[in-house]
Amino acid sequence: MSQTAHIPSHRKPRRSASKLALRAGVAGGVLGTIAVAGAAGPASAEPVTETIEMPTLGSLGADLSSAVAASAEASQQEALDQSLEAQEAAALEKAAKEAKKAKAEADRKAEAERAEKARQEAEAKAERERAEAEARAEAQARASRDSARSQLATTAASDSSSGSNSSDAGSSSDGGSSSASESTQAASGTAAAIVAFARAQVGDAYVTGGTGPNSWDCSGLVQAAYAAAGIDLPRISYQQSSMGTSVSLSNLQPGDILYWGSRSGSYHVAVYVGGGKYVGAQNSSTGVVERSLDWDPPSGAVRIL
Length: 305
Description:
Elements lengths: L16 H24 L16 H102 L2 H13 L4 H7 L4 H12 L4 E2 L8 E2 L1 H11 L8 H5 L3 E3 L9 E6 L2 E10 L2 E7 L3 E6 L7 E4 L2
Parallel strand pairs: 1-2
Antiparallel strand pairs: 3-8, 4-5, 4-8, 5-6, 6-7
Helix pairs in contact: 2-5, 3-4, 5-6
């Protein structure tokens, strides 16, 4: 082993080639500048005694770092500006699309509202025309019923009570011939007023709870018919059928109350008008009608008069 193997070296570390070259270049440039200045001056010029401070590698590195940092910052700022511009462009495009969509939706709603308004106006016009037509028809029907009522009342007043009694006697003596006697039976006095009122309402509507003047239920019509003759009746059908005297269906007289169901629990009532027929507010499909007893035979009858 060498005797100097463990002696530490005192040589300075070598500088890198790039650093040496950089120092050499800077020094050479400065010296070259001085030499050119000396050669260009007069021969008698005094030697240059001005001291020139040469930049050090440390200051050059700092300047270079500053330049690199500034360039990086400028690049970053430019990228940020471009990103903001792209975002603004995208936001403007999105806003334009939304505005276009909103306008289209507003136009659609406005068109729908115009169409709905036109439809409602057309329906309202049709409803007005229908109501006017119904009013005219109702006025004509009412006038016809009033005329028929007056005619019936006049006829009933001119009938003699003796003719009515003989008809009743024939009906009582022979139940099988009741239909024939009823065909010639005529109402008189109070019964005539009840029958006339009931017949005058034929064609009116049926409405549950209806008490007139243009719509009725069964007991409402019977109550109003008797009220026209000055007789007060209860409002409910089973109450009406519980009044008066029970009579046979073969011995009916005009003005008798017909009932369906039991006498104390009837669910429907009508007015017998003679001739084997009755007038009643049947249902919402038929309204107030005049029908034969055979069309819907009643359960029984009561006589109030």
